[in-house]
């Protein structure tokens, strides 16, 4: 596993903060996309970059691997899965390997002077699921987690990890389109309800008529939430 981790370097598309860098956000793309692709998609929807005065945004790209839902075709995916459904076992071997690789991205930020409680992780679709595994199973001290059009399988290892932990957990922000035909709105809702029952502080925004896509309204909501979790630090806080 260590050898695999050492051999994987994720390409990263970065939006640097306009001012002094005091927080970081790691935004994971959906299956078959790339960090650069996700950044461009967001730019298209918002008519501008998702950008902040003090927050660095990192869009990593998943490695290429055979992907079972594509009959073994090679795609940029964070992990493998038997099918796109919440009713099957997770492919934990690939999920765990990628948690190790993405820990390297978090560590790079920490080593550059950013505290763990000033780092947010999240993503779209598969990227949101990956972010929940990364934070709730491995990095429960990050500032928060967001998942857009995402879900966890019914018997997810995330639920098991949370049941075993007695500490304070990162807050979860979720958005999901009611017209999503690829990742059903009910799967996202069920994920949110289960995490809430397990003690996670959650927010869930249903987006009427939205398909499996990013919408301007959810990105605006996300932007407000990001700023509430990672406010600009005053000079006094830094002394």
UniProtKB/TrEMBL annotation:
Q: What's the EC number here? A: 3.1.2.22
Gene3D superfamilies per the UniProt record, alphabetical: alpha/beta hydrolase
Enumerate the UniProt keywords alphabetically. Acetylation, Cytoplasm, Hydrolase
Report the domain of life of the source organism. Answer: Eukaryota
Fetch the InterPro entries from UniProt.
AB_hydrolase_fold, LYPA1-2/EST-like, PLipase/COase/thioEstase
The residue ranges of the Phospholipase/carboxylesterase/thioesterase domain are 14-226
Q: Which GO terms describe its biological process?
A: cGAS/STING signaling pathway; negative regulation of cGAS/STING signaling pathway
Predominantly, its location class is: cytoplasm
The Gene Ontology CC terms held by the record are: cytosol
What this protein catalyses is: S-hexadecanoyl-L-cysteinyl-[protein] + H2O = L-cysteinyl-[protein] + hexadecanoate + H(+)
Say yes or no: keyword DNA-binding present.
Answer: no
Which regions form coiled coils?
none
Is Cell cycle a UniProt keyword of this protein?
Answer: no
Where in or outside the cell it occurs: the entry states:
Cytoplasm, Cytosol
Molecular function (GO) terms for this protein are:
carboxylic ester hydrolase activity; palmitoyl-(protein) hydrolase activity
Q: Where are the transmembrane segments?
A: none
| Family, as annotated | Belongs to the AB hydrolase superfamily. AB hydrolase 2 family.
- What does the UniProt record say this protein does? Palmitoyl thioesterase that catalyzes depalmitoylation of CGAS and KCNMA1. Acts as a regulator of innate immunity by mediating depalmitoylation of CGAS, thereby preventing CGAS homodimerization and cyclic GMP-AMP synthase activity. Does not exhibit phospholipase nor triacylglycerol lipase activity, able to hydrolyze only short chain substrates due to its shallow active site.
- What is the protein name for this chain? Lysophospholipase-like protein 1
Q: Which organism is it from?
A: Jaculus jaculus (Lesser Egyptian jerboa)
């Amino acid at each position: 596993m260590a050898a695999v981790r050492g051999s994987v370097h994720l390409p990263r598309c970065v939006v640097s903060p306009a001012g002094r860098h005091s927080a970081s956000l790691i935004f994971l793309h959906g299956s078959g996309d790339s960090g650069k692709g996700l950044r461009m998609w967001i730019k298209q929807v918002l008519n501008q970059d998702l950008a902040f005065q003090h927050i660095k945004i990192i869009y990593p790209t998943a490695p290429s691997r055979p992907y079972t839902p594509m009959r073994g075709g090679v795609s940029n995916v964070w992990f493998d899965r038997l099918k796109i459904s919440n009713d099957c076992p997770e492919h934990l071997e690939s999920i765990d390997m990628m948690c190790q690789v993405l820990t390297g991205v978090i560590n790079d930020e920490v080593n550059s002077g950013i505290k763990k409680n000033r780092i947010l992780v999240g993503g779209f679709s598969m990227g949101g699921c990956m972010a929940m595994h990364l934070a709730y199973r491995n990095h429960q001290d990050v500032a928060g987690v967001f998942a857009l059009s995402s879900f966890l399988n019914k018997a997810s290892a995330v639920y098991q990890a949370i049941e075993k932990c007695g500490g304070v957990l990162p807050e979860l922000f979720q958005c999901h389109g009611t017209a999503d035909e690829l990742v059903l709105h009910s799967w996202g809702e069920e994920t949110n309800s289960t995490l809430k029952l397990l003690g996670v502080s959650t927010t869930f925004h249903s987006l009427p008529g939205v398909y499996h896509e990013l919408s301007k309204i959810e990105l605006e909501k996300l932007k407000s939430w990001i700023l509430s979790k990672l406010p600009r630090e005053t000079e006094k806080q830094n002394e």
